[in-house]
């Protein structure tokens, strides 16, 4: 009985084994046909790696992809659009249009050289120049005597070096300066430059009644009468002292006229010394001024408006009233200009101080610039001139000496695209020089026969008296500044010994 039970158990185990072995084999093969997939690293990868169970899920995924692509295209279109102009964002400013300029009114570190030549910021990004390419810039300078004639040449060189516009110089001169400068510009033959002279002797009676303690003398008062002296059809002019050096294009300063508003007729830089504050010494009593006052080394004059305001009568009445207590001027025309502005502050448009960096002793000129690129106009308004005390005087002195010794012949360059008056002497000279054979061994000598050299008569004070027998001998020399002075001293020594 027991043996039968054991035999049945063995049969049952064998039967079960025969059933499980095929099942396990099938299960092993089934599992081997599947691939092990990595874990997704992002939501997008999870979506792409997840098997789509049906058509509905596949359509949902395709719809989502199309939505994302449409959003990207919309974003690219938005970024590709030009920026909207301020006038379009603010309807109240639409009436300004492209006339809203990007000048910087105040501050010393602004790079105004680019801002002063463009206006507006319209939606089509078109820039319009404030100063037309061929617009003539008018400059008025009072110049008298040998020294001033020598100084003004350095000023003119600095202006010509940077300029890109035609220039018209108006010189108020005595007979000496007119003789020197007329000969200089006639032999210089600079294209697109016109020069007119006005006799200062005829203007002396207009200002001779004003006592003046300034070293400039009576000529330091003649800027007051420019509205009467200059042509009546001249509307605006830049007025400069002879001790000015330009470090930028004068067109940038000319463009500032477009900033004048209301009744503003004078463009001036604030005085950078404490003179008009009256605290330089005990009992110091300056002329009345608005705050620190204004310096008249650089002036923008709207002549047409000044004439309508009866400028002549305005400054005369002010000067007469103040002279009753002040007795005389200390800083020439500057005192009278400031007294008028004190009574009529609406007349002045204050310029950024880099348009007149004043290098006199104890000034605040260092606040007008942070870098060399900030400098526009340098004013040597101290009686010490190049010997003035200043932190950066070496840099300013080197800049001045650069233009002092600069070859003026290099400034005889054409202004392309601007029509200019035909100079027949210059045209004939160029035609003659073009006919010379440059391969000729004597070309340089032949060229010198026709070359017109820039001539500065009476570089130093000299009273010429021609001899009665016409036996004068003139020495013509081309020397550097230092050698020129040594040579002149040498010739003067020889002349003195000969006369003895």
Automatic annotation (TrEMBL):
GO terms for molecular function: glucuronosyltransferase activity; xylosyltransferase activity. Its main location: Golgi. It catalyses: 3-O-{(1->[3)-alpha-D-Xyl-(1->3)-beta-D-GlcA-(1->](n)-4)-beta-D-Xyl-(1->4)-Rib-ol-P-Rib-ol-P-3-beta-D-GalNAc-(1->3)-beta-D-GlcNAc-(1->4)-O-6-P-alpha-D-Man}-L-Thr-[protein] + UDP-alpha-D-glucuronate = 3-O-{beta-D-GlcA-(1->[3)-alpha-D-Xyl-(1->3)-beta-D-GlcA-(1->](n)-4)-beta-D-Xyl-(1->4)-Rib-ol-P-Rib-ol-P-3-beta-D-GalNAc-(1->3)-beta-D-GlcNAc-(1->4)-O-6-P-alpha-D-Man}-L-Thr-[protein] + UDP + H(+); 3-O-[beta-D-GlcA-(1->3)-beta-D-Xyl-(1->4)-Rib-ol-P-Rib-ol-P-3-beta-D-GalNAc-(1->3)-beta-D-GlcNAc-(1->4)-(O-6-P-alpha-D-Man)]-Thr-[protein] + UDP-alpha-D-xylose = 3-O-[alpha-D-Xyl-(1->3)-beta-D-GlcA-(1->4)-beta-D-Xyl-(1->4)-Rib-ol-P-Rib-ol-P-3-beta-D-GalNAc-(1->3)-beta-D-GlcNAc-(1->4)-(O-6-P-alpha-D-Man)]-Thr-[protein] + UDP + H(+); 3-O-{beta-D-GlcA-(1->[3)-alpha-D-Xyl-(1->3)-beta-D-GlcA-(1->](n)-4)-beta-D-Xyl-(1->4)-Rib-ol-P-Rib-ol-P-3-beta-D-GalNAc-(1->3)-beta-D-GlcNAc-(1->4)-O-6-P-alpha-D-Man}-L-Thr-[protein] + UDP-alpha-D-xylose = 3-O-{(1->[3)-alpha-D-Xyl-(1->3)-beta-D-GlcA-(1->](n+1)-4)-beta-D-Xyl-(1->4)-Rib-ol-P-Rib-ol-P-3-beta-D-GalNAc-(1->3)-beta-D-GlcNAc-(1->4)-O-6-P-alpha-D-Man}-L-Thr-[protein] + UDP + H(+). The keyword Phosphoprotein does not apply. It is a single-pass type II membrane protein. Residues 74-120 are annotated as: Disordered. Residues 89-101, 110-120 have a biased composition (Polar residues). GO terms for cellular component: Golgi membrane. Coiled coil: none annotated. It is found in: Golgi apparatus membrane. Keywords: Glycoprotein, Golgi apparatus, Membrane, Multifunctional enzyme, Signal-anchor, Transmembrane, Transmembrane helix. One of its GO terms (biological process) is protein O-linked glycosylation via mannose. Gene3D superfamilies: Spore Coat Polysaccharide Biosynthesis Protein SpsA, Chain A. In the N-terminal section; belongs to the glycosyltransferase 8 family. This is LARGE xylosyl- and glucuronyltransferase 1. It comes from Oreochromis aureus.
């Amino acid at each position: 009985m027991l043996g039968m039970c054991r035999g049945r158990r063995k049969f049952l185990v064998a039967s079960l084994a025969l059933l499980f072995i095929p099942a396990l084999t099938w299960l092993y093969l089934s599992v081997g046909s599947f691939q092990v997939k990595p874990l997704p690293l992002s939501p997008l990868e999870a979506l792409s790696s997840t098997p789509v169970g049906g058509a509905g899920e596949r359509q949902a995924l395709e719809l989502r992809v199309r939505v994302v692509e449409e959003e990207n295209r919309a974003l690219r279109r938005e970024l590709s659009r030009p920026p909207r102009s301020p006038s379009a964002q603010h309807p109240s400013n639409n009436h300004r249009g492209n006339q809203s300029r990007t000048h910087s009114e105040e501050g010393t570190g602004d790079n105004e050289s680019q801002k002063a030549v463009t206006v507006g910021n319209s939606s089509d990004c078109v820039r319009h120049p404030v100063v037309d390419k061929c617009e003539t810039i008018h400059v008025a300078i009072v110049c008298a005597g040998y020294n001033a004639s020598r100084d003004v040449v350095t000023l003119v060189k600095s202006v010509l070096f940077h300029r890109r516009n035609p220039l018209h110089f108006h010189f108020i001169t005595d007979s000496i300066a007119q003789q020197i400068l007329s000969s200089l510009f006639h032999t210089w033959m600079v294209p697109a430059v016109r020069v007119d002279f006005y006799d200062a002797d005829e203007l002396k009676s207009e200002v001779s009644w004003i006592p003046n303690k300034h070293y400039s003398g009576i000529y330091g008062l003649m800027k007051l009468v420019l509205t009467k002296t200059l042509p009546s059809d001249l509307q605006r002019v830049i007025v400069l002292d002879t001790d000015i050096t330009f470090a930028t294009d004068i067109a940038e300063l000319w463009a500032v006229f477009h900033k004048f508003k209301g009744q503003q007729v004078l463009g001036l830089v604030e005085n950078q010394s404490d003179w008009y504050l009256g605290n330089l010494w005990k009992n110091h009593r300056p002329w009345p001024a608005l705050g620190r006052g204004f310096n008249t080394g650089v002036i923008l004059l709207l002549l047409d408006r000044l004439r309508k305001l009866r400028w002549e009568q305005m400054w005369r009445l002010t000067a007469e009233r103040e002279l009753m207590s002040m007795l005389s001027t200390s800083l020439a025309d500057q005192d009278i200009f400031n007294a008028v502005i004190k009574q009529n502050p609406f007349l002045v448009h204050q310029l950024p101080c880099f348009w007149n960096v004043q290098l006199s002793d104890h000034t605040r000129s260092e606040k007008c610039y942070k870098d060399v690129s900030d400098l526009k106009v340098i004013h040597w308004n101290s009686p010490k001139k190049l010997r003035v005390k200043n932190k950066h005087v070496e840099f300013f002195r080197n800049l001045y000496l650069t233009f002092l010794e600069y070859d003026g012949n290099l400034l005889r360059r054409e202004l392309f695209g601007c029509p200019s008056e035909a100079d027949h002497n210059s045209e004939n000279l160029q035609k003659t020089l073009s006919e010379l054979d440059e391969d000729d061994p004597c070309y340089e000598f032949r060229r010198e026969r026709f070359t017109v050299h820039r001539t500065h008569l009476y570089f130093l004070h000299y009273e010429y008296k021609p001899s009665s027998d016409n036996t004068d001998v003139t020495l013509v020399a081309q020397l550097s500044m230092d050698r020129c002075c040594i040579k002149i001293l040498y010739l003067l020594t020889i002349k003195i010994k000969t006369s003895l």
